[in-house]
Amino acid sequence: MDWLKSILREKEDEVSDSRLEAFLKSIFIPKWNEFMEKEKEEIEKRVNAKELAVPNATKGKEYEAVLLSDCEGIAILKLEGLEQTGLSVQKSDTELRIQGVPNKAGTFPLTLRYKISAGESSFRSRIFELRIDPNPRDLWKDRPVPSDTQYSKADTECVYVKSGTSELEDGTPRKNMVAASKRGRSHAHDGKPRDDHYVVQYSKESEWYIMAVADGAGSAKFSREGSRIACETVKAYCEDALMRSEELEKNIACYSEDIKDKVREKVVGDGIYDILVKAALEANRAIEVEAQKQSRGVREYATTLLLAICKRFDFGWFVATFWVGDGAICLYDANAPTAQLLGVPDEGEYAGQTRFLTSPDIFSQDSFDAASVYKRLRIKIVEDFTALFLMTDGVSDPMFGTAAHLEDPSKWDALWENLIRNEENPINLENQNETTAEQLLKWLDFWSEGNHDDRTIAILS
Amino acid sequence: MRRLPVYILVDTSGSMRGEPIESVRVGLNDMLAMLRQDPYALETVWISVITFAREVRQLVPLTALDKLQMPRIEVAESGPTFTGQSLELLCQCYDKEVVTGSATQKGDWMPLLFLLTDGKPSDVQLYDKQVERVKSRAFGCIVACAAGPKAKVDPLRLLTMNVYSLDTLSGTSFKQFFSWVSTAIGQGGKSVGVRGGTDLPAPPAEVNIVV
């Protein structure tokens, strides 16, 4: 202040402190007021910015949102309206944040009340709206299928098939089969039946394992019957054909001596074509017959079909498969580790697109493209394996997601771990027994967002 | 994640001013509220809104249903209805936003398209050309709504067989229409037809199918 006094003394002789103070006040207070007005305008603009919005929340899901990222200059700030929601406000020097886990759904008006300087007479305010959506998990309902529905099918099914009571002759443990199928949440919500189906069979006489899974098309009204007919027909056909397969088995043995030999491979391939493709053709015909009987189009019974037969020989295991549609058949060896996908899933560019056993481009009438159908066959000889998996896309989609992942052995390792070392419900696949089937069925209830199709899985292990 | 993309094209030309556009706003919000009660929709539906008058814009880019905060639809003062341009913008958005499946990525469900107009296209030549481009893209279903007495059905029939007409531009009509759209969307990811299209539910009384 002294330096100011000395400057002013050049103008005036005597500058009293009170006059000096009055002078300073007359200059700075208006300027200060102007400055504060601008500040307040700017802060109001910041708080009322159009872009400021409260993002939506979901009941039961962790929520965090920064409502105001710059609180500087605001003396008092509070947010009202969160009281009933389970969310809370966190204020720091710089930002105003909402966080927590909402405990109810609805639309909640929130009022931001603030004073820029503490001395302001009333609060300024801005109203926001917080929308808390219901959690999809809470919305899924389980409605029964109307009792008068034609072709009734149980919502869930599971089975354990032992191949024998004692160990094999050479002391190695037997491989057994377990299968489970469950109506998906989507069908349960709509009170619609399960469209998937499976069969697993071990023939004591021929010592062949026969496994099939089928997924009825979503919009085909009677596809649940289509999948059932497909499975039962191929099981019956294969069981019968494999009782009379000495020639084929001789060829398989011969092939096992030199699997690089293309001639021997072709002989086995043709023999398998004769059984599996004929089985599929029979299934297709059986569906046609039923459709005709009911005066309906075959399309209404559309279904995929994944079929595998398997037998243990002296030299190891022989597996043969036929595959139309999505889902997966995989020969998995945890020790190698290898995961051999025994075919190619039929998938289109868009979700839900696949081929069906009944699609005209598979078996059309009695003339079909034998070469392209042949390509749906696979044969494999391995010394041993951990598990042969057959599954519909209700399981392969959530577990793998893409075709690329289906080819990735580490993803199959992950699935195997998920099954046998599951935290809540480990499944005894390494040493199957009567409880394994129920465990597998329970496992099929896993939650996977957006994946609510019927789920079916069959495992030989 | 399998998404079901839904594109909604709304005529915002001057003639929609007043009760018509207010009914559309309410109808759309009701539709969104209905969808949010459907667990499948909450997990899979993504919505985009394109408005068209003289100016054509994508008011809402393809956004997940639970993240969506619907902005207020504004109406033009007066002027033409560039429906053709809206289809052109739709194709652009489709090509940019819709994900097709590959070995490494799960594809979207085939998108649904709903177009609402109370008049006829002012840009007829462009419209005719764009209709072909839209039809050459995969859609689960395409539904056109001719709202009110001045709406012309013939241009819409070029786009799709599913043309519905509302006799009036009233709140009730729009409410019924959007409620039905919500049901159609609800079925959209689930009942993929054997040939790939979506089966439409039967429309309500206020909505007449155009034969």
Q: What does this 3D model show about the protein?
A:
The complex is a heterodimer of chains A (461) and B (211). In chain A, helix 5 crosses helix 7 (262-293) and helix 6 packs antiparallel against helix 7 (262-293). In chain A, the strands form four sheets. In chain A, strands 8-9-18-17-14-15 form a six-stranded antiparallel β-sheet. In chain A, strands 10-11-12-13-16 form a five-stranded antiparallel β-sheet, with helices on one face. The longest helix of chain A is centred in the middle third of the chain and has 32 residues, at 262-293. Chain A has 461 residues and is of the alpha+beta class. Helices cover 32% and strands 25% of the residues of chain A. Chain B is of the alpha/beta class. In chain B, 35% of the residues lie in helices and 22% in strands. Chain B has helices at 19-35, 39-44, 83-97, 124-135, 154-159, 171-188; strands at residues 4-11, 45-52, 56-64, 112-117, 141-147, 162-166, 207-209. Chains A and B meet through helix 3 and helix 4 of A and helix 2 of B.
> Span from first to last CA of chain B?
38 Å
How many strands in all of chain B? 7
What's the overall average pLDDT of chain B, rounded? 89
**What is the count of helical runs of chain A?**
12
Biggest contact: A-B, 39 and 34 residues
Number of strands of chain A: 18
Largest sheet features of chain A: 6 strands, antiparallel
Strand content of chain A: 15-25%
Radius of gyration of chain B: 16 Å
